[in-house]
Design a protein that fits this description.
The chain contains 15 helices and ten strands. It has about 325 residues and is α/β, with parallel strands linked by helices. It has a five-stranded parallel beta sheet, with helices on both faces. Strands 7-6-8-9-10 form a five-stranded parallel beta sheet, with helices on both faces. Strand 1 (about 40-45), helix 4 (about 50-65) and strand 2 (about 70) form a beta-alpha-beta unit.
């Protein structure tokens, strides 16, 4: 069972967590028989934060030449299994009821699970178990999320017989620097966003997964209504609700900076998460280092958002709060 720590404590321990994950999974290609998963098509099935990992992972796998689809359990269980060459099930706890049901449905196919620890109910159902060993976390996932992102990144390198990119091996140091230097920008962004009635988070590619996870954190940790949008999709109507009462976090350096500028012109609390410096007062920039590797970028970007959310949580008087709506049917724990 996961050791629960406070939200900010979980965010701050990510350099240690990422270093542990790298050590545990660096030799993945040599330690695990991955042949059934090399060609695809692969279904990546997740829910909650793990679905955002599936979204980022499928993007990364497709860029690497393996057809992969991110699916919610309900979508997967209504599809024809003959479509897939293998299934990757994602659940940090290994106890998510919906993913356990998906694993049962996928019994005729090769099944792999990506999780936090190797001992859990889901691992018992699967042929291969890849455990990030990311350690202590909060209910609003920090280390669990970045650990699983790192795991899917390393898995992709193993499936394609490629070396681990330098940006990925340097992640513990990169994230440590970000945590040390981004505090003032995180606080300014939180102060700007905290009075919003709702926040839109916009990103493209792996940035859409980061937007989705950012929304989950805003809702769980700061109890802020929020929604995630694909960058280009946002331009086709959804942006019309932006005004002086709403907030925006735009992730990236493509169309996202101009979206933030346009929203700020209507009085929106606009924040840009990008490898840029502050050039005006209308759009507040939360700087992040440039990352060419999509998984490295996803990890760095979500840590920057986690830092902003930690400040918003404190401002709302919710420091280390627990969930108000515990569910009785979303986890199936192993018998003790």
């Amino acid at each position: 069972m996961m050791e629960r720590v406070g939200y900010r404590a979980a965010v701050n321990r990510q350099p240690q967590s990422l270093a542990t994950c790298l050590t545990n999974l660096a030799s993945l290609a040599g330690d695990v028989n991955l042949e059934h998963f090399r060609k695809g098509p692969l279904a990546l099935v997740g829910i909650g934060a793990s679905y955002q990992v599936a979204l980022a992972g499928a993007h990364y796998l497709r860029q690497s030449g393996i057809l992969a689809l991110p699916l919610y359990p309900g979508e997967f269980e209504t599809s024809d299994l003959s479509l897939y060459g293998g299934i990757i099930l994602l659940s940090a706890s290994g106890e998510s009821a919906e993913i356990l049901d998906a694993a049962t449905y996928a019994a005729p196919l090769p099944r792999m699970v990506l999780c936090r620890d190797a001992v859990n109910p889901l691992a018992e159902l699967c042929d291969l178990v890849i455990a990030a060993e990311s350690g202590a976390d909060n209910g609003a996932s920090s280390t669990g999320y970045t650990g699983m992102l790192l795991a899917i990144g390393l898995l992709t390198q193993a499936l394609t017989n490629r070396g681990i990119p330098a940006e990925i091996t340097a992640l513990p140091e990169t994230v440590e620097t970000l945590l040390r230097t981004n505090g003032p920008a995180s606080l300014r962004a939180a102060e700007r966003l905290a009075l919003s009635t709702s926040i839109d988070v916009v990103g493209n590619g792996v940035g859409l997964a980061t937007a989705g996870e950012g929304v989950i954190l805003l809702r769980e940790a700061a109890r802020m209504p929020a929604f995630a949008w694909d960058t280009r999709n946002y331009l086709h109507g959804p942006m019309e609700s932006q005004d002086q009462n709403t907030g925006l976090i735009a992730i990236g350096t493509g169309r996202e900076p101009s979206i933030a500028t346009e929203a700020a012109a209507f009085g929106s609390a606009a924040v840009l998460l990008a490898n840029r410096q502050q050039t005006d007062t209308a759009t507040l920039v939360v700087p992040v280092p440039h990352m060419s590797d999509p998984i490295a970028r996803a990890i760095v970007d979500i840590v920057a958002i986690q830092m902003v959310v930690a400040e918003m949580q404190d401002m709302a008087g919710l420091t280390d709060t627990r969930f108000r709506y515990p569910q009785s049917d979303t986890k199936r724990r192993a018998a003790s």
